[in-house]
Design brief:
14 strands, 283 residues, globular, alpha/beta, Rossmann fold
Length: 283
């Protein structure tokens, strides 16, 4: 309860409320951690409705959103589906439904349950990609680095270490201890370095990260000279949204899963988005 009281949705009264959970990765069945996060968000949503005299959280209320859902693309899901003898779409249908049914069983009053395999999300992601590309913020380059299949991400040289496993030296990510391998491929990159200083200032000056003791950890993730790989070669990743005008590349999580918060707000219809954006709290 103490941590709940420190979250943003209990701080100030506003005329609108937009609360989100993470969208949960659909490579396996839900567990109590997923439910815990969602119930906290549900409590915040119900509290905001009560403050404005709305007693029925299951009824739609203009200006009040509480969204959750499943993140369904990526190599891990592609591999998990193959192991289960199913297509990725069949696999995600089953797992996503498990999440949905769990939340129904515990009377979670979400106003939207988004799946990244939905057409509305694909439309939003393609629109976001086009917008970023038109602004010159996406470019194609040969990217090399230490890649973890388990974590589905690249790590820099400073983020890895060598450990001994069964008498053999193995490179692993310091944060997760999962094995990494040095690979290189042509990807699309997002010019994150253009915004790193602005992001750092925003994080430091605003009341953004709670509890605040996690702020230094977040700041360490922002490197001034580092851009972000936002696509994967179709030879490695087939289950994902295709990069517009490039069938050889699939859009990666940073411009896929993260756009879900815009998808549920109505993007690319900016009239709808401007009515709710940004989220009041993201758990």
């Amino acid at each position: 309860m103490r941590n709940l009281l420190r979250t943003p949705f209990l701080i100030a009264k506003r005329s609108k409320s937009f609360i989100t959970t993470p969208i949960f990765y659909a490579n396996g069945d839900p567990h109590i951690g997923h439910l815990y996060t969602t119930v906290l968000a549900d409590a915040g949503h119900r509290w905001n409705l009560l403050k404005c005299g709305n007693l029925n959280p299951k009824k739609a209320h203009h200006g009040y959103m509480f969204t959750t859902g499943t993140d369904e693309h990526g190599i891990k899901i592609q591999n998990a589906a193959a192991k289960a003898g199913q297509s990725p779409n069949q696999f995600c249908d089953r797992v996503s439904n498990r999440f949905y049914q769990l939340f129904q069983r515990f009377n979670v009053a979400h106003t939207d349950f988004v799946r990244t395999s939905e057409d509305r999300h694909r439309v939003a992601v393609e629109a976001m990609w086009k917008s970023l590309n038109d602004q010159g913020l996406i470019y194609k380059d040969t990217y090399s680095g230490w890649y973890s299949i388990t974590d589905e991400c690249f790590y820099s040289e400073t983020d890895i270490e060598t450990v001994n496993v069964d008498g053999k030296d193995v490179k692993v990510a310091k944060a997760t201890k999962n094995e990494v391998e040095l690979i290189g491929e042509t990807n699309y990159m997002f010019r994150l370095s253009h915004f790193s200083e602005d992001i750092r200032k925003w994080l430091i000056s605003g009341n953004v990260i709670r509890p605040k003791e996690y702020l230094p950890q977040v700041l360490q993730c922002i490197r001034k000279d580092e851009d972000l790989s936002v696509s994967r070669d179709v030879k490695r990743l087939q289950w994902g949204i295709t990069v517009p005008n490039d069938p050889e590349q699939k859009i990666y999580v940073w411009i896929d899963a993260l756009v879900n918060y815009l998808t549920v707000a109505g993007y690319p219809d900016m009239h709808k988005v401007n009515g709710m954006w940004p989220p009041r709290a993201t758990l």
